[in-house]
Design brief:
Elements lengths: L3 H13 L1 H4 L2 H5 L2 E8 L5 E3 H9 L10 E11 L2 E10 L2 E12 L2 E12 L1 H9 L1
Parallel strand pairs: 1-6
Antiparallel strand pairs: 1-2, 3-4, 4-5, 5-6
């Protein structure tokens, strides 16, 4: 059996995969029925809205860009909190995801993104 950290990270990386993102069935299989997202824009999304939005991504490139600083913390036996950063052509966001283990496996229960200025952030992290 996969440990909770690995399971949550693997599931998150699947959601960041452009092929998975364009498949409503695959995305739906990773989202909890009560899923909510607060996007980097500040908009609140429910499960159905996110599935529809991601299915509409037709860009041949990677819609998520690069992922860095991914960390996992187990908050409870069936809950893992992931934090990480994304950079898509200079649009940088800190991201936070809560994954819950259910009878269907690990499902994303909550996600939030917050935009940040990469130049200022690099200075903070570097010293």
């Amino acid at each position: 059996m996969t440990d909770p950290y690995t399971a949550a990270i693997e599931a998150e990386l699947k959601l960041l995969d452009p092929e998975v993102r364009r498949s409503p069935e695959r995305v739906g299989g990773l989202l909890h029925p009560e899923f909510v997202e607060i996007g980097a824009s500040g908009r609140v999304w429910d499960r159905d809205a996110v599935i529809a939005l991601l299915a509409g991504e037709r860009d041949a490139g990677d819609p998520t860009g690069t992922v860095s600083r991914m960390k996992a913390v187990q908050l409870a036996p069936d809950t893992v909190h992931l934090t990480f950063d994304t950079d898509h052509n200079g649009r940088c966001a800190h991201r936070s995801s809560l994954w819950r283990r259910t009878g269907r496996g690990w499902l994303l229960y909550f996600h939030q993104g917050t935009l940040y200025d990469s130049g200022r952030e690099e200075q903070r992290y570097s010293g």
